[in-house]
């Protein structure tokens, strides 16, 4: 009787899990270069970051002194020649009263140069504020107000608008021999200005741009010729204006078409 030969089981193949191999040399080399560069830079900065020994401050000083500026930035300069934050120094200087612009630079080996420009007041705002040529309020409680400056007034949040109107009108009147002394915007939104020769000009609330154009083009010539006789000019009409003579009645004047003088006063806003 034949014997059955037992089947041999084939051994199962072994599964091996291998971790991905890293080439540490390739990774380590650039990191080492970066680390060496960083350490070298830090050492160079430490060696070259000497103490600031001199500060050169220049500018047309009228309201601010160099000592005031030096005292304001003294704390910022303790970090050294290279580590001093120039932008912060500049911001600190420009935050001082009466400073308009500031420029800060390094001068090798241990000196900082600070150049400043002072604010130039263009007008007085309300009782004690000062506006610059850009219509910005840079001092709100000045102790000294130059007497020659024009006076502007109006709601607190509209000083820039009043300043821009003053600058615009003045620029257009100077070439024809006139100047502006005051500009007022009242709570109702009505405009009025006084010229340097004392003549008051009423612009009202509506069509102020058009009325300003008409005043510069027509009414200003009347004022330039007889300023001593004129008390006020009222521009609050559709097609003309009224001249108020000193010691006399107001006289209407037409600008675009012939109007009944009696109708002129009924057309404008007050």
Pick out its properties.
single chain; 270 residues; alpha/beta; Ubiquitin-like (UB roll); Rossmann fold; 2 domains; ten-stranded mixed beta sheet
Summarize the structure.
This protein is of the alpha/beta class. The protein has six helices and 13 strands.
Structural notes for this entry:
The structure is a single chain. This protein is an alpha/beta fold. The protein has 2 domains: 54-118, membrane protein fhac (Ubiquitin-like (UB roll)); 121-267, 3-Layer(aba) Sandwich (Rossmann fold). Helix content is 31%, strand content 26%. It has 6 helices and 13 strands. The protein has helices at 24-48, 66-73, 86-94, 159-173, 208-226, 261-267; strands at 54-58, 99-107, 111-118, 121-125, 129-132, 137-139, 151-153, 180-185, 191-195, 200-204, 230-234, 240-245, 250-254. Strands 6-5-4-7-8-9-10-11-12-13 form a 10-stranded mixed beta sheet, with helices on one face. The radius of gyration is 38 Å and the shape is elongated. It starts with 23 loop residues before the first helix and ends with a helix. Residues 255-270 have low confidence and may be disordered.
In the sheet with the most strands, the strands line up as 6-5-4-7-8-9-10-11-12-13
Largest sheet: 10 strands, mixed
Instruction: Please name the CATH topology of the largest domain.
Output: Rossmann fold
Shape: elongated
Strand content: 25-35%
- The CATH class designation of the largest domain is Alpha Beta
State the helix count.
Answer: 6
| Poorly predicted residue ranges | 255-270
Distance between the termini: 137 Å
């Amino acid at each position: 009787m034949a014997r059955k030969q037992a089947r041999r089981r084939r051994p199962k193949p072994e599964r091996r899990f291998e971790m991905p191999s890293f080439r540490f040399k390739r990774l380590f080399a650039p990191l080492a270069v970066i680390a060496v560069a960083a350490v070298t830079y830090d050492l160079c900065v430490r060696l070259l970051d000497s103490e600031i020994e001199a500060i050169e401050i220049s500018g047309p000083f009228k309201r601010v002194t160099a000592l005031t500026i030096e005292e304001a930035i003294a704390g910022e300069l303790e970090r050294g020649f290279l580590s001093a934050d120039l932008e912060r120094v500049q911001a600190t200087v420009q935050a001082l009263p009466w400073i308009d612009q500031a420029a800060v630079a390094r001068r090798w080996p241990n000196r900082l140069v600070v150049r400043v420009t002072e604010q130039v007041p263009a007008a007085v705002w309300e009782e004690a504020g000062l506006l610059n040529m850009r219509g910005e309020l840079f001092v709100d409680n000045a102790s000294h107000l130059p007497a020659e400056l024009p006076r502007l007034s109006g709601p607190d949040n509209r000083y820039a608008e009043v300043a821009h109107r003053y600058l615009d009108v003045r620029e257009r009147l100077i070439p024809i021999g006139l100047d502006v002394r005051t500009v007022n915007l009242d709570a109702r939104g009505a405009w009025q200005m006084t010229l340097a020769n004392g003549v008051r000009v009423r612009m009202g609330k509506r069509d102020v741009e058009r009325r300003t154009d008409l005043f510069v083009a027509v009414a200003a010539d009347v004022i330039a010729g007889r300023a001593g006789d004129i008390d006020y000019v009222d521009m609050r009409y559709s097609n003309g204006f009224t001249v108020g003579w000193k010691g006399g009645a107001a006289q209407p004047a037409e600008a675009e078409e012939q109007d009944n003088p009696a109708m002129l006063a009924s057309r404008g806003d007050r």
